[in-house]
Amino acid sequence: MEKKIRALVMLTKRQPPSSRLRFVACREEFLKHGIEMTFMPIPSNPVGRLKLFLQMKQHDVVIIQKKTSFKRYELTFIRYLNPNIIFDYDDAVMFHELEHGKTLMGKNVIKFLRTIKYCRAVVAGNNFLAEFARPNCPNVFVLPTPIDMERYRLKDYSEKKDKVTIGWIGVSGNLKYLKRLEPVLKNISERYPHTVLKIISNDSIKLNGVKIEFKKWRLEDEIEDLRSIDIGIMPIDNSLWARGKCGYKILQYMGVGVPVVASPVGINVEFIKHGENGFLATSDEDWLLSLKSLIRNPDMRKTFGMKGRQILEERYSLRRYAEKYSSIIKRYDKISIG
């Protein structure tokens, strides 16, 4: 019988969605591959951290998720206790200043590089992120955040509707990207009065001339909210921070069989096959043409949606993610180094 591998996953105290999606929600699937995961938040006080660090000797592998604020002496101590360290990230943690509109000073780059130099392996959410790790860690892997196919039920295309719902899901901090699409959405609203923009988030915004339906995000409602939309959108800019995004909302749209229109930035160009499961749009004219095509053609929406679902099942399911991640963990646990 294969020995069970114990993995300690250190999560940030605020535990962003990626903690749930990349680890907590995958616990049972990892167990199928002999990986038993323990999740622990990283305390900010020294005594709490010391207690956490001492747990590492009881585990075969240590995974640090996105946290880059460990001091050099802490990383040295962690590696002394357990050298099998994997760093996991699905955001551009090295460019956090840009997330908040601040000037890029480089301090987060330094913290990121310092952290991964102490790791045996790095798992990044996309290729753009992985490129920053490769010169400083010999073992870098790319695994996009997965979708649980058993949870995501297909949209009911037999339902007759008198409106077309353009949907956006995400945290309120990213509503700024919708704001930049305001002229396009206003134009769409004027040409097609039966359209509505549904925002699924913890907050909403006002867009001039755009009919908005706001639905406060709740995990228990998430799937039905996604199934209620007809076209999913993901507008973002071409910044260093945005290029580090892992396009999870695109996978969510695809998970329920909804076509997507998105900016051709970062991993979006891998998820969307232009003209097959959605459209990639750069200019306002691109966005207008793409949205108009899908609004006018319900058959195209269904065809694109089904193709997206197929791509998701083949490449980005939770099952395949856990299988690949488990194989990475097994390379770097204590068994492999004796």
Enumerate the strands of the largest sheet in spatial order, edge to edge or round the barrel: 2-1-3-4-5-6
Mean pLDDT: 92
Radius of gyration: 21 Å
Number of strands: 12
What sort of overall outline do the alpha carbons produce when their principal axes are compared? globular
Beta content: 15-25%
Q: Ranges with pLDDT <50 over ≥5 residues?
A: none
Terminal CA distance reads: 18 Å
Order of helices and strands: EHHEHEHEHHEHEEHHEEHEHHEHEHHHH
Biggest beta-sheet profile = 6 strands, parallel
Number of helices in the DSSP assignment: 17
Helix content: 40-55%
Structural class: alpha/beta
Question: What keywords describe this structure?
Answer:
single chain; alpha/beta; 338 residues
